[in-house]
């Protein structure tokens, strides 16, 4: 069979596709903005010397790292309403699931970064009488974050790719828009190929930016490139 | 069968009725994961070696493969193989094949990078020494470089395999009857999403946490036996 390609379906729906891409980026951004501070909080709890603080944080990280993102999303979307009567929309469920998921992964990055700061830095900060929050904010975190930045950016890109699961709970992201267009026009091949290319370009751009930042840091001596 | 359709049982959140179906789902999940694990290792080895030691053409081909499959979401890849590829090749592609293709090619691209990084970490002197002994390139690759590289790659592969195992859940989107799809079917018929999805999460935890513990122990043992 000779297949007649027809790319007019993409230009006809360009506005819709870019709307979907915008939603994908928005969802990812929200998950980053919630997941990063949450990840820091979990990491600090895990590093705490109080067992009743570090233990729940460890369980949190292990549970959310060991379960698939899709199961977390379905749990929030299908099970939570039955349990609490609270109905979440596709966007809310996906935003919460992705925030929690990224916080679990990022907390491990934070923990590694903070643990890698020499003991002398802590002692010196304590020696000049800084409070714990001040110590973190001015001495420990700036050094840890600079070292961990490439890993963070890598995780953010991973998150952007994982965000496509939101389409399964009818959030209008790029993947959902593509499915919608292909049901209406039967131009599945063109549409799915087009969104693959769109994702490819966006993610390639992000990973090139990451590489650029990595090189900057490597040159400034704060970070040795892998 | 009559008792299954009685309203009281259908509405009761009975997990007992769901267990056999979930068990079947688990078998499908494990099957898909096993196939993808082997396929992605082979793909990773082939493309990793191509990028490390191949000529210019092979090198470029390997880079193209890795970049395309690493820079697109795996869910898009699975859906592309399921919905778009059949139009091109003009034959039916089952949910299993589509999911296995998407997951293996995606994971293969990540594995290729692990192989490449592992091989690059082997000192150049090893090549020179092997060459001096008159070994062929292929022999140096498989007898000298890879065995040493594999030891360094195990931590990265541990993470990759666990990631791969969790990603098999995406096959539910194209109705491959693995754990998550079975859970959806069960909760649609028995209205017990809380029990079923919690149980599915627990099954994943019960597999992933012991598996990563065992792999880490293996890792530590290999490191200790390193020369």
TrEMBL record, chain A:
Transmembrane portions of the chain: 25-45, 57-77, 89-110, 191-210
Membrane topology term: Multi-pass membrane protein
InterPro entries, sorted: AA_ABC_transptr_permease_3TM, ArtM/GltK/GlnP/TcyL/YhdX-like, MetI-like, MetI-like_sf
Organism domain of life: Bacteria
Subcellular location: Cell inner membrane; Cell membrane
CDD domains xref list: TM_PBP2 (cd06261)
Function: Part of the binding-protein-dependent transport system for glutamine; probably responsible for the translocation of the substrate across the membrane.
Name under which the protein is recorded: Amino acid ABC transporter permease
Protein's organism: Ancylobacter defluvii
Automatic annotation (TrEMBL), chain B:
UniProt subcellular location: Cell inner membrane; Cell membrane
Membrane spanning residue stretches: 32-53, 74-101, 196-215
GO MF assignments: transmembrane transporter activity
Chief localisation class: membrane
ABC transmembrane type-1 domain residues: 26-215
InterPro entries assigned: AA_ABC_transptr_permease_3TM (IPR010065), ArtM/GltK/GlnP/TcyL/YhdX-like (IPR043429), MetI-like (IPR000515), MetI-like_sf (IPR035906)
The keyword Iron-sulfur belongs to this UniProt entry's keyword annotation: no
Membrane topology: Multi-pass membrane protein
SUPFAM superfamilies referenced in this protein's UniProt entry, alphabetically: MetI-like
Domain of life (superkingdom): Bacteria
GO CC, alphabetical: ATP-binding cassette (ABC) transporter complex
Keyword entries, A-Z: Amino-acid transport, Cell membrane, Membrane, Transmembrane, Transmembrane helix, Transport
Coiled coil: none
GO biological process: amino acid transport
Subunit structure: The complex is composed of two ATP-binding proteins (GltL), two transmembrane proteins (GltJ and GltK) and a solute-binding protein (GltI).
Described purpose of this protein according to its UniProt entry: Part of the ABC transporter complex GltIJKL involved in glutamate and aspartate uptake. Probably responsible for the translocation of the substrate across the membrane.
Family, similarity comment: Belongs to the binding-protein-dependent transport system permease family. HisMQ subfamily.
Protein name: Glutamate/aspartate import permease protein GltK
Organism expressing this protein natively: Ancylobacter defluvii
